[in-house]
């Protein structure tokens, strides 16, 4: 499983670098940046001898907020949450740690056994364990030196 991330260093260099710097300073970390950039939880993907592991950092949610679907070898994790305005006497200038909705999709390798997938949500981390098929499990053995 692989995720492709955007790398701003791969963009072409501007003919007017001062303009880009001014533009970036005006719109960086403001309304446009907050609304235009998709907010999705950070993800760790790892592999053990008999499982693939996907971990999503999504604090502040409940396990009932998550929907996990598997369709045609694509595992999709989604959350859609309605935000309630709390009348706690605060006026927020910026709120960064509220997920209203997100979708993350992962293409499972052919060696994954889709029938044994299980998920747990504990301490703000959604952990999905995807077992490997029997023929794909790593077999290790000691090799004798002659």
TrEMBL record:
Gene3D superfamilies: 2.60.40.790. Residues 34-146 form the SHSP domain. PANTHER family: HEAT-SHOCK PROTEIN 20 FAMILY MEMBER (PTHR11527). Belongs to the small heat shock protein (HSP20) family. This is Hsp20/alpha crystallin family protein. It comes from Pedobacter chitinilyticus.
């Amino acid at each position: 499983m692989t995720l492709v991330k955007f790398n701003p260093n791969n963009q072409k260099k501007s003919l007017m670098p001062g303009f880009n710097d001014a533009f970036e300073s005006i719109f960086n970390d403001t309304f446009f940046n907050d609304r235009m950039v998709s907010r999705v939880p950070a993800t760790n993907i790892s592999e053990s001898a008999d499982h693939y592991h996907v971990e999503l950092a999504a604090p502040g949610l409940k396990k009932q907020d998550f929907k996990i679907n598997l369709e045609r070898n694509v595992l999709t994790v989604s959350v859609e949450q309605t935000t309630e305005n709390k009348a706690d006497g605060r006026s927020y200038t910026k709120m960064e740690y509220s997920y209203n909705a997100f979708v993350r999709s992962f293409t499972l390798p052919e060696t994954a056994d889709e029938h044994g997938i299980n998920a747990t949500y504990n301490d703000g981390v959604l952990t999905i364990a995807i077992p490997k098929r029997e023929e794909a499990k790593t077999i290790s053995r000691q090799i004798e030196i002659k």
